[in-house]
Amino acid sequence: MIADFAPRLARVLTEYCRPVQKGDLVMITSTTEAEPLILALYEAVLKRGGNPVVRLQLPGLTELYMTHATEEQFDFLDPSLMTLVNAADVYLYVDAPTNTKAMATFDAERLARLQQGRRPYIERYLERCADDDLRWNITAWPTQAAAQDAEMGLLAYSEFMVHAFGLDRDDPVAYWTAFRDRQARLVDWLAGKEHAEVRGPGIDLAFNFAGRTWINSHGVRNFPDGEIFTSPVEDSVNGSVAFNLPSVYGGRELGGVRLELKDGVVVEASAAKDEAYLLSQLHIDAGARRLGEFAIGTNEGIDRFTRSILFDEKMGGTIHMALGESIAVAGGVNKSAIHWDMVHAMRDGGEILIDGELFYQNGAFVVG
Q: In the chain, pLDDT over 70 holds for what percent of residues?
């Protein structure tokens, strides 16, 4: 199975996740570590009549930029990047890190400044993604750096990814189609309901979602996938959560993150590890202190914490919530330069009530 990992993954990405049509401009972005998948995607796009464009990220470039960039250079935005984000029909991003800690030595203010300088690109990207005008998907490729973060060898990590992707199934496309249909029943059950209460060890949170949509996330925008999510009504979130899993964002790993929210705004925040970075991100803009997303992870093929949010937020038996930018397709209106997902395990006594009815308990759905 490992031997044909790249072509099997490329097939699912271009046939199921984001079917490539004749004439599509397909932007493929990754590092040199993902060469096998880049080649497989390039071939798959060509065979489907698309026009692939590869944008490679060399190891060390971002570190050099963060070390030497001036204020004026932080405000410079690569015009070719803006051209592609405006012209592309499909955007496939492959996460394949060579060093997941490359940004760890830079202070929080400088990292925040990097994000501020990229704001026009981020806003245009989100604008086109909101109505699927840009058909995007984020996936991953196994690297030594990612395997080390997951505390696994590269072979074991690759096998873990194959299972998380469902590529060990006889027909991965059929597997994900059935996965989509199971989650559709949960989303249908949630339609028209209004209020959620989330309780358990370390969490006591409530929010409204009246008028918002629950989204069935089954491989279209992320792969692997496995979650249902919504954007809470912005001023309705009240309560607290002490996250029981580490939180990784911007190359920094935080531990013991605790948030208290009142009327939708984070009024208290702390972390046992790297609290200064947490607080710096909350000060990026007014929307950074609001909850942009609440989600439930459903992928049972992801059975361990890996320090990669692409996998961790989909892990079965967990929930996650994101500070910052709302999910427009779910009806959210909060705007921010950040979208920081934080994961909380729910198998040990966690429960979710919807309009007073038990919906989820100990990491499993009890309705639908």
A: 99
Give φ, ψ of 288 to 5 degrees.
-65, -20
Does the 5-168 domain belong in CATH 3.30.930.10?
A: no
Q: Domain-by-domain residue ranges, the chain?
A: 5-168, 173-365
DSSP 295: E
**pLDDT at residue 1, as a whole number:** 58
What pairs with residue 293 in β-bridges? 322
Q: Give the position of tokens 């909101």.
A: 130
Tell me how far CA of residue 270 lies from CA of 228, 257, 274, 275, 282, in angstroms: 28, 6, 9, 6, 11
For residue 26, the number of C-alpha atoms closer than 13 Å in the C-beta half-sphere is: 28
Quick: pLDDT tens for 294-347.
Answer: 999 999 999 999 999 999 999 999 999 999 999 988 999 999 989 999 999 999
Q: Alpha-carbon distance 149 to 109, whole Å?
A: 25
Cα 51 from chain centroid (whole Å): 26
C-alpha span between 55 and 81 (Å, rounded): 9
C-beta separation of 91 from 136 below 8 A: yes
Q: How many alpha carbons lie under 13 Å from residue 116 in its C-beta half-sphere? A: 17
Residue 324, CA distances (Å) to 14, 249, 293 in order:
30, 13, 8
> What confidence score (pLDDT) does residue 219 get?
95
Nearest in space to 277 (alpha carbons), one of 82, 159, 106: 106
Task: Decide: 168 and 1 in contact? Cβ < 8 Å.
Answer: yes
8 Å CB contact between 9 and 40: yes
CA–CA distance, 2 with 288 (Å, rounded to integer): 40
